[in-house]
Amino acid sequence: MGLYERYILPHIIDMSCGAPAISKQREKVVPLAEGRVLEVGMGSGLNLAYYNPDKVDLVFGLEPSEGMRQKARKNLAAAPVEVKWLDLPGEEIPLQDKSVDTVVLTYTLCTIADFRSALAGMRRVLKPGGALLFCEHGEAPDESVRRWQRRINPFWKVIAGGCNLNRPIPENITEAGFTIDKLESMYLPNTPKIAAFNYWGRASVR
Ligand SMILES: C[S@@+](CC[C@H](N)C(=O)[O-])C[C@H]1O[C@@H](n2cnc3c(N)ncnc32)[C@H](O)[C@@H]1O
Across the chain, where does the E strand assignment appear? Predict the structure, then answer.
């Protein structure tokens, strides 16, 4: 890991992912988590404040970047729930089959290199009847925005830690064998349009 990824990127991600419009999105998704939870790409722990301690037993925080785990220390100390770090990537979830009630995935599917293998792992560890709660930015519905997403993506990926602007999030999730039970989407306000289109909802395994 280079100096940029270790020392600079975590601050940039923490600041941009802490924007008010994104916090509102977290509020719509994270409080729905229950039981044993796996959060994939926990980052700087910006979701932690939104977990409901009456519903959540334990959160496994999977996060491969040491810089992000360091940046999460403050949010971790204030977390209303117990958290166990898993310092591995989403492609290598070290949990038993059918062992978690909820998988939480926010603003991370865009970044996971082998997202198909990571989604297969999430599906593997989810108990029957469990939920994948997701909130991700991705491919916009308007061709004019999509064109800019395609143009800028190669440069964006380099400065934004591997983040892709234009993944078709609902398709990625359903192609991994999940059924989407609830899906909402919109452009977030006060956000550059190329990174503003959000998809959020709930998926399960039938
Ligand atoms: C934009 S941040 C979002 C962090 C957090 N989920 C949030 O909502 O604030 C993307 C996160 O994905 C993590 N990441 C990168 N590659 C990953 C992988 N292969 N598996 C899991 N997480 C990964 C990054 O280290 C970073 O913390």
Answer: 35-40, 56-62, 83-86, 100-106, 126-137, 179-187, 197-204
- Decide: helix, strand or coil at residue 79: coil
Nearest atom in ligand 1 to 16's CA = 1
139-178: per-residue pLDDT in tens? 999 999 999 999 999 999 999 999 999 999 999 999 999 9
Helices vs. strands in the chain: H and E counts, helices first = 8, 7
Contact 123/180 with Cβ under 8 angstroms? no
pTM: 0.98
- Give the separation between CA 13 and CA 72, rounded to whole angstroms: 11
- How far, in Å, CA of 150 to CA of 167, rounded? 10
Beta-strand pair 126-137/197-204 = antiparallel
Determine the atom of ligand 1 nearest the C-alpha atom of 41. 22
Strand pairing category for 100-106 and 126-137: parallel
CA–CA dist 34, 182 (Å, integer): 17
Parts of the chain with a pLDDT under 50: none
| Cα 89 to ligand 1 centre (Å) | 9
| Pair of tokens at residue 181 | 């039970």
